[in-house]
Write the structure tokens for this entry.
Amino acid sequence: MKANIKWTLAGIATLAVILLAGGSFYTVPLNQYAAVRQFGRIVKTESEPGLKFKLPFVQNVQLVSKSLKLYDVPLSDVITRDKKSMIADNYVLWKVVDPTKYIRTLEAADVRAEERIEAAVYNAQKNVISSMSQDEIIEARGERLTQLLTDEANSDIGDYGIEVMVAEIKSLDLPDDNKEAVYARMISERQNIAASYKAQGESEAQKIRNQTDKDVTVMKADAQKQAEILEAEGEAEYMKILQEAYNTEEKADFYNFTRQLDAFKKSLSGSNNTVILDKDSELASLLYGGAFAEE
């Protein structure tokens, strides 16, 4: 009887030790936080994975994911600085950075966190978009808008233990009722710019053509003048050579005679071969062997 009681007490003690030991340790999984709570109050948090110690029975552990999460923000209307309406479609990448604040303010509920994120992103988007005109928004680089939205959103949610890593605009579109009008205006503006560039190009081309025509005219005039000078110099040199070649009476007579022969030759080249000569001419005397001279 006493032995049975002894073994029963030993078993109870062993079970108590096992339960005590089992309740004294817990594991922090990879990519999770562990918040140790005592009577509902958070007394410490663990972020490094591994086996940890806690007080059995009086302390319990709450795990919180620290992985990156995606939230697709609902569509929202925003007004630009020039009072134009646009429809924004965003998504957010966020994560828990302070599990204590996250549990205390949001009770570790992702739904509540996303509600705060949605409000923060909407306010950030409203502030950013309202500071820019519609044309500036359309022409702005995506990275710039993303950074502005991310910074603005984080300034509103720091007290909740969460951080927006990226607040990205998937699309920023125009309402259907004025989309075509805006596109038509943008096309007209681009066409006006193109026409302006084309007009400037035509003006520059005309200036180049006018200058080229002027240069060509000047060059032709100079060439014509030089040609006339060379021609005059050639004529003068020709006359000088003739003068030197026929500077005696015999040479002059011979020159006149050869010119008469050339003229006679040309007159016989046509279909009319009749030539009338003065009987006293040297050519007639030459042709008739001096018969006219004897008479």
